[in-house]
Amino acid sequence: MRYGVAAFPSKKLQDLANSYRKRYDTKYAKVPPHITLKEPFDLDESEVQKVIEKIREIAKSSAPFDVSVLKFSSFYPVTNTLYMKLQENSEMRRLQEKLNEGELDFGQEHPFVPHITIGQEMDYDELSDVYGRLKMEKIEHHETIDRFSLLYQLEDGTWTAYETFLLGGTQ
Amino acid sequence: MRYGVAAFPSKKLQDLANSYRKRYDTKYAKVPPHITLKEPFDLDESEVQKVIEKIREIAKSSAPFDVSVLKFSSFYPVTNTLYMKLQENSEMRRLQEKLNEGELDFGQEHPFVPHITIGQEMDYDELSDVYGRLKMEKIEHHETIDRFSLLYQLEDGTWTAYETFLLGGTQ
């Protein structure tokens, strides 16, 4: 089965992301707006429990992290993706590293660029038009993330949350 | 904010439900296939923490429950909904009661009929046609549910999982 690890930001930030996603993101209906902490990976049923135990350990020993959105950006020309760029900080970076090293190192295709996707698989013309406008817009949003989720993918490509993990014994 | 409590069945059962939902369920893209344990309710931010604490307590003191799907059914003529009917059992019933009584009693519009919706807001003609066919189909699926989730609704009607609760100290 295919799994992924992501954090869902506040309703406010998700609503803002969705106001773009519904127009520009081909995967809008597949998953709510999210911050990917671990790229999708495949696991046999026999391995799931061990991986979850490890993720629980990591969550307990990690601190909640701040999210600041100060600009829009694009992965063009690598992919025709638009995103809200998140300012990196050491708590976020360390959590992402712990979720991708040692027994959780399943190979990471992209370097970690903390972001919330708001458009993907866009035509070049639309991408440059929308990105041109977004670069002029002022955005400033701050919040603290105190949890993240392990998700799995259904046959139709949508994602279901399997378990949430509270950071740093928030519970 | 609007919240709801639901259990997500296994990927296998969700995939089966989605094979119908993608054609017959107007809310297909809003939430993965689920078993509603508490109807949507509104909460002020100030009340959320207290409600979550109560739900955590209930989860810890509740047992995992069996899910058996043996037939399709319909809520027609109350609503033009098709669903997989789940056999009720005392663990499932008791959990649903605990999530809807005392300080969690926010009013329940419908009696508890454990089910997974596979079609809703259907034309009468399509409903009777599809239901007629499904009544002839054999279905038999059994599994155990060991967790459920608190979800909240975004402005566009989609649901995000806020926290999962493991039943009976599964963790």
TrEMBL record, chains A, B:
It holds the Pfam family 2_5_RNA_ligase2. This is Putative phosphoesterase SAMN05444126_13527. Keywords: Hydrolase, Ligase. A motif (HXTX 1) lies at residues 34-37. GO terms for molecular function: hydrolase activity, acting on ester bonds; ligase activity. Its EC number is 3.1.-.-. The active site is at H34, H115. Belongs to the 2H phosphoesterase superfamily. YjcG family. A motif (HXTX 2) lies at residues 115-118. SUPFAM superfamilies: LigT-like. InterPro entries: 2H_phosphoesterase_YjcG-like, Cyclic_Pdiesterase, YjcG.
